[in-house]
Amino acid sequence: MAASAQKPKRLTINSYLKYYYDIPYEGTTSQGKPLRKLKNITCPYRGIKIIPQEALRTFERGLSRCKTALESTELLSKYLGNMLPVEKSLYAVFKDFSSLNPDDNLQNCLQMIRENCLTKLKLEEFEVLDDVDLLSRKLSTQTALKLRAKTTKCRQIIISDSKRDTFKRKTFLDSLEEIIPNSNEKEIFNDIKNKALFLPTSESSINAFVVKYSKRKQIEIVRRLFIASTGSIEHITPASLGGLNTIGNFLLTSASGNRYRENMPLVEYIKRFPKIPAYMQMYTDDIINEIHNGGLKGNETYPYKIKEKLMKESMGRIMISLSNYKFTKEEAAMAADEFEHRYDKYKK
Length: 348
Fold this sequence. Notes:
mainly alpha
């Protein structure tokens, strides 16, 4: 992911995606605009229904009027069916808090439970570091020592009470790039880096969420719960690994699902979420329904493109069925060409 931009003065949905999620709303993913406009689409990573683009303004207007914990939870309740597990669990905590403290704010709620969540978060981090150390046994002694030095330093930071020197997941991940493994151990070292990606984040752990957002204002906390389920354009093959900025390499995913994958190979992400192949089929079926109902004009070949792309990127673990699609591959290409011809003629 690219480095975060300077914090904008006013955090709108778009600027929030860029600053906190590091997901560009336009720019390199502008070819994904047709996908952003779709409704009732299943997230291919997490299986929830993605909040459509048209809901963003309505949410922002409602959020600007929320002053209390009760008002905030009432606003979020409209999107409960779209929430991911971490966000849904937090909503339940917020709902209980607001029923007892309706005029309070959600930041105070997180601050009340922060210390307990911090302890649990440290244990979660230790578990991943244990897995990394276990895999290091397959490395040469020299490489393993370099890796153990880094995981040992992380453990010392985690158990320290210092507020200055806190454990930062990204710092550890970046530090792994400093280790140059021998040519015969590159594969296992890649496995280690992929395992390290499972260090908890606010997308994967309620404890990480509480610790991170307990210092944020209520408006940011509420927006974060909503944003997690909004649409985001995801590269099937990550851009950092040569993935193209074309619709054939794009999926419409939840922002949280996109962010949590980072540059993780799809085969590794499937290990984390074994239901992804089934979710990908649900996603494709939703796309097909949109096309049959007149959506995605000019992109009738999209289901065929992602079927091939997903098969390759997942090393055969994702096999999409297009049996419900009314277009053959040739008919889809003809429909796309016909639309482009009419569109070019209209522009002239």
